[in-house]
Write a structure and sequence with these properties.
The chain has strands spanning 5-8, 12-18, 35-43, 51-52, 73-77, 83-86. With 97 residues, it is mainly β. It is globular. The chain is built from no helices and six strands. It starts with a strand and ends in an 11-residue tail after the last strand. It is 0% helix and 32% strand. Strand 3 (35-43) and strand 4 (51-52) form a beta hairpin. It has a domain at 1-21 and 32-63 and 72-79.
């Protein structure tokens, strides 16, 4: 997961699949928690790829990723106070192989 971001505190986040991935404007997103399967925990690395935290499931480290497909998910900060900001010009987090 390549994240061009700034982070503070634990700089860690959990990765989940989504039951109903949000699309479009935030005003159209459904309310409530739509997290499905916990895929693992990662640590932000400034200017580079996030790394997997050992001791947590890491189901997404290898999966079939067909060309042209988009997968929805949710990234959730793990500490009491976490701040991870994605730079607007980079379109957020993406999977990089």
């Amino acid at each position: 997961l390549l994240i061009k971001a700034s982070a503070s505190y634990t700089a860690q986040f959990d990765v989940f699949t989504a039951l109903a991935p949000a699309a479009g404007s935030t005003s159209s997103w459904p309310s409530g928690n739509l997290r499905d399967q916990h895929l693992g925990r990662m640590t932000v690395q400034r200017g580079g790829a996030a790394t997997w935290v050992s001791g947590f499931p890491a189901l997404v480290q290898a999966f079939p990723c067909p060309a042209g497909k988009t997968y929805g998910g949710e990234l959730v900060g793990v500490g009491d106070v976490d701040s991870i900001e994605w730079l607007a010009g980079t379109s957020g987090a993406s999977i990089q192989w």
